[in-house]
Amino acid sequence: MSGKGLRIVVLIKQVPDIEKVRFDVETGRIDRSSAPAETNPFDLHALEAAVQLKEKLGGSITVISMGPRQAESSLRDALARGADRAILLTDKRLAGADTIATSRALAAAIRKLGGFDLILCGEKTVDGDTGQVGPEVAEVLDIPHVAYVCEIREVTDDKITVVSDMGDKYLYEVKLPALLTVTRELNTPRLPTLRDVLKARKKQIEIWDADALAQYEDPDRFGIKGSKTIVMKVVIPGVEHRKGIIFRGEDAAEKLLEVLKEGGFVKP
Questions:
Q1: Do 107 and 66 meet the contact criterion of CB atoms below 8 Å apart?
Q2: Burial, 166: exposed, middle or buried (Cβ in 10 Å; 0-12, 13-18, 19+)?
Q3: What predicted TM-score, i.e. pTM, was given to this entire model?
Q4: Who has the most CB within 10 Å: 96, 141, 166, 218?
Q5: Maximal CA-CA distance, the chain
Q6: Can you tell me the distance from the alpha carbon of 107 to that of 124, in angstroms, rounded to the nearest whole number?
């Protein structure tokens, strides 16, 4: 840990409202214009954890997101919630990235910062639902990581002790710098005050393109060009609704009984 406290990086993503978004079956992509955007809910728990650690131990919080310029609204919300610095990675060369290409870009941005003690992110995003980006960033940076953290027990100068919920709960102690992906059980994100929202509007959001990261990673390894996976086809399963049968006539009771027997609800 630095003498000025814990240097925390929080990775966030702006996602469409998953209840309203449509999928482009032809391209295999999410039609992000079909629904309003919001900060990935899991990432808000990572940000809240960072703010709590900063309040307890001192330090700074840098929030990084990759996406189109509209993602600035999520970064401003993060500033209002307690982040000190906000960086948006945006460039056509970063678009269409799979999880590994995304992880390379985020890791390059973290290296560009020049130093960190802890990286926090949500366990997954509601649009991709893979849970891969956090651990992949840790692998690219060659630092230890723990997934599904539901409790942070202790932080010292050189290590952090956490509880991971993998169905059963496990206690881990890892050396810093490290990366954690956190669950919703970790905390309850606070809401920003009106004063904080107004202050956040005046703060600068740094914009970095692929060239800004070129010293730390080959830009050809970003975006679609650097992606190892491609969505070939999207299939949206149909929703099967309840089916009803109406029995009429004098033998209605007998017909109902036969159906119940066939379904195993009544023993012959």
A1: no
A2: exposed
A3: 0.81
A4: 141
A5: 87
A6: 17
